[in-house]
Design brief:
The protein has 66 residues and is mainly α. Helices cover 47% and strands 0% of the residues.
Amino acid sequence: RTTRSSAPVRRLSWNMPYHVAHHLFPSVPFHALAALDTEIAGHLPKACNGYLAFHANFLKTLPSAA
């Protein structure tokens, strides 16, 4: 998953919001992941707009425990 996040979050997490790019090309250094993500974006599913949006969408996919 790739998650759009703020610059402070990207900096604190060494650009790991670009998780898909990191796993597809693990030899790419963390500071180049944003550029790599731009290059491969057309081949990836749409990214979520932040961690809260990702988790909200994920929770919608879980079956209810009724």
